[in-house]
Amino acid sequence: MGQTSKYIYKHVMIGPASGHTGDVDELPDLRFARAEDGVTLGYQVFGRGPVLVWMPSLSNIVAQWRIPAVRAAYAALARDLTVVLYDGRGTGSSDRRIDLGDLGVEAHLRDLRAVLDHAGIRRASLLGYYHSVATAIAFAAREPGRVDRLVLFGGAPRLRDAMSPAQTQALLSLVDQDWGLFADAAATAWLGWDAAPSGRWVAESFRGATTAPVAKAWFDAARAIDVTAELGQVRAPTLVLHRQGAEQIPVEVGRRLAARLPDARLVELPGSTPTLFVEDAASDVRLVSGFVTDGRVTRSTARGLTAREREVLGLLTAGHSNAGIAARLGIAVHTVERHLANVYRKLGVSGRTAAVAHALRGPGG
């Protein structure tokens, strides 16, 4: 890991004896880098192992630690990886001036370079997430010596392809009409965070991420971002992940992306929640960690569980109550209870907390 070792934080504790799913004693320090054009970027580094930079969309890294499922995902990833989080220009802890100028791919590349250089990171794998997929592709194409692997989720090289579904367009129309309503709708209707209090915390994270004018500028600029011509220049092994319905991002978008990258594999994840590390969180963590660590693509789930039992366990891990799981799956609460009893029996655990800890630890954890 070379120069990055001095930036590894010791606050992340995974799977303590009490059976918790992962805790963080203190938040990682918030550091600040400065891009070439003078914009200040807030970022954090924690964990150990190969470096994975989780690139931002509309991010709010400090607030995101308050969301239990997100915090658990950070902790689980940090067992095997050094994780870098940062807020893009205009969002979260970064410079939030309205006059940030162009918000196209060149600006986002400046942000990424600034964080890597300030942290002393020479090479890293990149997790491009929604808006930042195009930036990850462009960086890998232009600076192949700095990218080990790519993991891409929820985006497209031509961002308007990922923004074209009717539900997405309806959601974006709210940005400058009612910022609070946009945050609530993005968290619940679009991303599926309808479990209280998680949905409320995600919505609050969105609301605090930026202002309506900056968000509008981000999305307006995104419609013009197109790095399709650079796909053939990407040499990094790439894992393209898809877990969205047609109302969010059709699977064909992910399939076209994987087909046009020289060394890419597409994994269509089961489930219906259009995010990572929430539904079947343990499987997502194993998949990303294994690929970043040594190129493995592992799609294992809890052994011996039926497909429905895995769904129930995934939603339980995401923090849903029995009633919430029932509502998500369209089944009765007593049916959820029966599935959970089977899950506990098959996993050899005594209850909810132990089942979640087992799921997040994964095989051999």
CATH topology heading: Rossmann fold
Overall mean pLDDT stands at 84
Measured distance between first and last alpha carbons = 24 Å
Main sheet strand line-up: 3-4-6-5-7-8-9-10
How many DSSP helices? 15
CATH architecture: 3-Layer(aba) Sandwich
Radius of gyration: 19 Å
| β-sheet strand percentage | 5-15%
SSE pattern: EEEEEHHEHEHEHHHHHEHEHHHHH
- What is the general shape? globular
The top level CATH class name: Alpha Beta
Structural class: alpha/beta
Q: Helical proportion? A: 40-55%
Q: How many domains, as an integer?
A: 1
Q: What are the defining features of this structure?
A:
365 residues; alpha/beta; Rossmann fold; eight-stranded mixed sheet; two-stranded antiparallel sheet; 15 helices; globular; disordered N terminus
Tell me what the structure shows.
By secondary structure, the chain is α/β, with parallel strands linked by helices. It has one domain: 3-Layer(aba) Sandwich (Rossmann fold). The chain is 42% helix and 13% strand. The protein is built from 15 helices and 10 strands. The strands form 2 sheets. Strands 3-4-6-5-7-8-9-10 form an 8-stranded mixed β-sheet, sandwiched between helices. A two-stranded antiparallel sheet has the order 1-2. Helix 10 links the parallel strand 9 and strand 10. Helix 3 crosses helix 4 and helix 6 runs antiparallel to helix 7 (179-190). The longest helix is centred in the first third of the chain and has 15 residues, at 105-119. It is globular. The model is unreliable at 1-24 (pLDDT under 50).
